[in-house]
Amino acid sequence: MHQVTVTASEGLKREFKVVVGRADIDKKADDKLEELNRKVRMPGFRPGKVPLNLLRKQYGRAVLGEVLEETVNEVAQKAMQEHSIRPALQPKIDIQNFEDGKDLEYTMSLEVLPEVEPGDFSGVAVERLVVDVTDDKITEGLDRIAKGQRAFKPIETPRPAEKGDVVVVDFTGRLDGEVFEGGEGKDLQIEIGAGSLLPDFEAALVGMSAGDTKKFPVAFPADYRAEKLAGKTAEFEATVKEIRVADAVAIDDELAKKLGLQTLDELKDALKKQYEQEYGQLSRNRTKRALLDELAKRYDFPVPAGLVDLEFGQIWDQVVRDAGSEAAAAASENKSVDEVKAEYRKIAERRVRLGLLLSEVGQRQKIEVTPDEVTRAVLDEARRFPGQERQVLEYYQKNPEAQQRLRAPLYEEKVVDFVLELAKVSERKVSLDELMKDPEETAA
Fold it and tell me: Is the pLDDT of residue 5 over 60?
């Protein structure tokens, strides 16, 4: 027998005092020990005939812990049902009293989900940016493909290297006289002007001939990925072993056949479809962001602090990983750590609020993600890891939580589509540059 009393109800916070009779707990513990008696083996006793006091002495503490956990969970579920509570997170339990022979007394505190009324979305206005695939873009794509199909051969007449050549080099880089990690290479093929290496390195190769060795400085940018090299200048020594020049590749039916197609027109059509898909996804992302921005302006209801804390923790961990430290994250924005944290907490609160709104819309409209859609998402994820497809598939088959991480964005996209169908969506043709701009830059 238990007694639940509401001790606090303010905003989204609820607190209960719970008293569970000691007799109920002892009976449940004894029942479990009796069940255990049928399974346990003890020297000198037949199965099921072990005295209860011996079982209690050996297994009593573990069984009591199990009973307490089950009791707390059962009472919590009943209390939430009786008070029509939708918890935001698991309740926090604080044991107040559980001495020998006395009742179990504890407090249960939790936050509830807010009541969300989605209302009418017909007044929400959103602009969809559209980009046409131009002939110039197709031509640019064909040039890129042709460039990728080039074959490089050694130059017939010796001459110094120039932009567009591929040079085969051995090199050694030193910082303060010491060779640094990643600072050595053998038979590295570098296309001068392609931007695959730092500008200083590629520029130093221009004018060198096969067999030449040259020492030169290379400045690393301040944001270079290797912290030990960022913002510093290293001394390199490089030897050019060979200079190669590319054969021209004609843009014709033969190029298309190399790619598994029959004609140049088929290649152009395939390129156009690819660009339309890419532009469509970019447009979709911009439209979705515009919709969420509009919804964030229209809806302002309290959100559980616990959910905001979790969301902020994930955001801030990512920010610190990207920046390297909390101090670096703050310095990048020329603000104090507390100021930057406050800004990201606002982002976390916005995400939680929009998530609760979209979740409510999805539940009311009975929007679901089908098993087939999850399967397709898993297969798409597996394709991202060539050669490891089977391991990826097995991972998702054995991890329901991992599947849920794929299901969640699919669900969100479906709800966003539903809202967009009701909203006023206008279209405007723009350039690719404008489509790719950050919305905040465009607004500014």
Answer: yes
Q: Look at phi and psi of residue 164 and say left if phi exceeds 0, alpha if psi is from -120 to 50, else beta.
A: left
What is the per-residue pLDDT across 285-320, written as a single tens digit (0 to 9) for each? 999 999 999 999 999 999 999 999 999 999 999 999
To 5 degrees, how large is the angle CA 405–CA 407–CA 410?
120
Q: What is the DSSP letter of 91?
A: P
Cα separation, 428 vs 127, in Å, equals: 7
Number of alpha helices (DSSP H) and beta strands (DSSP E) in the chain: 14, 11
237-269: per-residue pLDDT in tens?
999 999 999 888 899 999 999 899 999 999 999
Q: Residue 382: which residues within 8 A CB-CB, separation 6 or more?
A: 388, 389, 392, 393
266-443 maps to which CATH number?
A: 1.10.3120.10
Torsion of CA 425, 427, 428, 431, to 10 degrees: 110
Q: Which CATH superfamily is domain 2-111 in?
A: Trigger factor ribosome-binding domain (3.30.70.1050)
